[in-house]
Amino acid sequence: MTGVTVCCGTVNSIKALWETRIKKSKDELKTEREQRDRRAVGRLTGAWEDRITLAKLKEKVVTEEGRVILRIEKEEWKTLPPALVQLSQIQEWQLHRIGLQKIPRFISSFESLIVLNLSRNSVTEIPKEIGKLTRLRELLLSYNRVSYVPEELGCCENLEKLELAMNEDLDELPTQLSNLKKLYHLDLSMNKFTTIPDCVVNLPSLEWLDMGSNRLESLPEDIHRMEKLHTLWLPRNELEYLPDNISHMQSLNTLVLSKNKLRDIPPLMEDMSNLRFVNFRDNPLTYDVTLPDLKEDDEEEDREMFGREFMHFYIQEARKRGSQTFTLVLNVTLEGASETGSSL
Hints:
It is built from four helices and eleven strands. It has 344 residues and is α/β, with parallel strands linked by helices. The protein has an eleven-stranded mixed β-sheet, with no helix packed on it.
């Protein structure tokens, strides 16, 4: 009886174990099927969502003057979906005030991109993949939160216009940007630059530069190397003097220096015959001069706006007063020497 009991117990144990394993196997298979089904549903859902997103993006694509443009304004698009890659033939991104926080790394897929306008968003970073856009002509990122510009941007060999105004923490640029041989327009206003970067001075085609509302304390001595520069905006900085070489900028016709800390105007600037618009308003200049009365054919508005006549008059007055001061000092010195000689 004992042997039979043991045998039956063993069989029962084996049977229970087998049934447990079979149940576990079935449960695992069921779970696997459920997960597979969920993944399949997820893929279908994702694909369906991509189709919906893609369809929505296609509604934003227009063709103007033969150029394919993606235009989105005043909608909420904090990120751009990967489905956008399917529209890689787009030549312009015009995305304004959409709350965009990041330029996607798949930007490199848009090799036909000519204009990238992402102004007035919340972009914090320019990805290094930007360097793949060798056809890009305009990069507009003003009023964002960019604090760093990658050296790869210097690979955008056809870039002509770069705007990085009002990014607040931006205070330097990589030296590689001097490779932008076609760049003629650069806006770096309302940032934290303390000097004009060397790479900017080295830009061979630069014609228009705005560095107003920064923290510029001085201008580079070799500023005259910017031979093609015709417009230079430098208002609201900390400039205390101007280098004499600024007078050698033969192409310069517009110079705005209002609200700085300038104490003088270089006399050599009197010979800048191409200078048509200049503004020295709100600077603590050494001499307080008053312009002579207007002639009948002069216009008050032009005189007030350009300040060119003021510049010439100030230089003449400074030269005259400087000469008078020198004469006075010389006379005092001679008189002092004469009295000393008499006492001897």
